[in-house]
Amino acid sequence: xxxxxxxxxxxxxxxxxxxxxxxxxxxxxxxxxxxxxxxxxxxxxxxxxxxxxxxxxxxxxxxxxxxxxxxxxxxxxxxxxxxxxxxxxxxxxxxxxxxxxxxxxxxxxxxxxxxxxxxxxxxxxxxxxxxxxxxxxxxxxxxxxxxxxxxxxxxxxxxxxxxxxxxxxxxxxxxxxxxxxxxxxxxxxxx
Length: 191
Prior knowledge:
The chain is built from one helix and eleven strands. By secondary structure, the protein is of the alpha+beta class. It has one domain (44-190).
């Protein structure tokens, strides 16, 4: 009699274990399955000035033609050799802008800058300030509303910059001979 109870208990445990294995195998095999993938996109804010010449240049005013007394000095030709390139990946809905400022001003001379619409790249490229402006020692927004975008890289991609140099009659009394070195700084910042 004790033998039958032991045998039935062992049989019962074997049946329970077999049922557990069977239900696990059935629960794992279905017609669908899934897993998760984490996709990481970094915040990016990169800016560069490109040119096929040199980034540093000299803008020289010259004496009047034929050294004629009573004539105004001649302004240097506009310089359009520098291109502004950027890559931007936004965090949320924030947009970026490109600020520009000069390290110093030149007495009697306005340095005017204009950025053209972006050439190349993709995404939400920025909008240049219409007509540009004269550089100052405070940041001014040259290009606004940059979203996630890239302009492509190189001296024919991005925003072509044009510098003009003006010795306006109203500032003529402030002109002084000599060389003034001006550092122009561009910053990609949040709007």
